[in-house]
Amino acid sequence: MATVLSDELLQQIATTWGTPVYVYHAEKIKEQYERLLKAFAKADVRFFYAAKALTNISVLKYVKSIGCNIDCSSINEVQLAVKAGYTPENILYTSNNIHFSEIETAHDLGVHINIDSISNLRKFGQKYGHSYPVGIRLRPNIMAGGNLKISTGHSSSKFGIPLEQLDEVLALVKETGLFIRTLHIHTGSEIKDVEVFARGIEVLLEVVQLFPELEVVDLGGGFKVPYKPNEHGTDIEQLGQKVAEEFEIFKKRTGKHLQVWFEPGKYMVSEAGHFVTSVNVLKESAEHNFAGIDTGLNHLIRPMFYGSYHKIDNISNPSASHKHYNIVGYICETDTFAENRSMPEIREGDLLVVRNAGAYCYEMASNYNSRFRPAEVLVVNGQPHLIRRRENLDDLLVGQVDLF
Ligand SMILES: *Cc1c(COP(=O)(O)O)cnc(C)c1O
Q1: 332 catalytic per annotation
Q2: Rg of the chain over all Cα atoms, to the nearest angstrom
Q3: Residue pLDDT, tens place only, 322-378
Q4: Longest Cα–Cα distance in the chain
């Protein structure tokens, strides 16, 4: 049942397009989406892929082709979604501290909008009154997520309208005629515990009665996927069951039917991504064996930024006996991918594959140290396709004004 990319294919891709190279497996994305559909079959649910995880236009088009909607974090992502062929009805813009002009553009494009500040909500009400249904992002004051940097719903988080300011929202509704169609929360990323989602539902269902025109409850993203060997992700089937039950009970009690939306990012694309790198140098010191690879925090920053664990496989020497390595990058900063990691013996030139490299990896890449960003390859039906060429020196100069 597991959908895997073979090491042979990754090797072949590295030979064809060089390293480092990001490889994404289309059928794995599809498998994840189909698991969601199946798990939530008993509930009235729509899924919006959180595009910020990975925005290559071919990936956006692929996600559209399997029937998924899209959630955007900036007006540029909204424009990319339009370019990828999504219709406004299938595009959601969940903003965070953005200028009101972006909300006006989103309105003119006709996409769904979640607003996350009283200030922008007031402007929206004053300009559009009841004419355009809108969502509000609430801050539910729930602590959740893999670490503090990716926790977004707690009581000192910058995200959303604090629950305790609902009175102000209601006053605005009264004053401007705002049509509140959706209540939204997104409590964080890498939430394993179904109970956390259950608490989010509880918090929202307590306040939905305040908004008689409400049609949708949007529970955001944050499903956990396994990164470490033997680690487990969110129990999606249990969550699907829970959501179906809770909203059925709510409907029986109030007579009101609510649609549920989710915005999975990591869940959709993390495991589909494989970052193929090559070992430049080995360095031995008294304390560590260093394996220096042909990439760094400029291409994949999650371990250094969040302390994230990524599994790394030596696909060139998989059956060798194990040694301990610090796998480090080539950037003039400390960019450690893995510390004291037990691995099959590494030789210079070996290909090391960083797993779970689909979400928030290429997407956070930069040109630091004037390095080129890597190529991206999408494997569809066993066939690898280049979906972004590696950069070159001209790319580094694009947009610069040569003054002297
Ligand atoms: C980042 C984000 C998501 C996706 O989070 P994942 O952990 O990747 O599932 C969903 N909704 C909003 C509003 C986000 O900012």
Answers
A1: yes
A2: 23
A3: 999 999 999 999 999 999 999 999 999 999 999 999 999 999 999 999 999 999 999
A4: 73
Nearest atom, ligand 1, residue 359 CA: 8
Residue 159 CA to residue 244 CA, distance in Å, equals: 27
Please give the distance, rounded to the nearest whole angstrom, from the Cα atom of residue 51 to the centre of ligand 1: 9
DSSP-based three-state secondary structure for 340: strand
From residue 26, alpha-carbon distances to 277, 380, 386 in Å are 20, 5, 13
Pull the structure tokens for residue 250: 């709510």
Q: List, in order of start, the domains of the chain with CATH numbers.
A: 40-268 (3.20.20.10), 273-397 (2.40.37.10)
Query: C-alpha distances in angstroms, 271 versus 94, 135, 311, 359?
Result: 24, 30, 11, 8
pLDDT at position 2, please? 63
What pLDDT, in 10s, does the model give residues 192-204?
Answer: 999 999 999 999 9
Confidence (pLDDT) at 244: 97
Residue of the CA atom closest to atom 3 of ligand 1:
221
Marked catalytic residue, from 68, 72, 332, 361: 332
Q: What's the pLDDT tens digit per position in 87-107? A: 999 999 998 899 999 999 999
Residues within 6 Å of ligand 1 by CB? 50, 52-53, 71, 73, 94, 186, 189, 220-223, 263-267, 359
Q: Sorting pLDDT into bands at 50, 70 and 90, what band is 285?
A: very high
- Ligand 1 atom nearest 264 alpha carbon: 9
- Mutation pick for ligand 1 pocket among 138, 186, 308 (CB with most ligand atoms within 8 Å): 186
Identify the H or E element spanning 376. strand 375-380
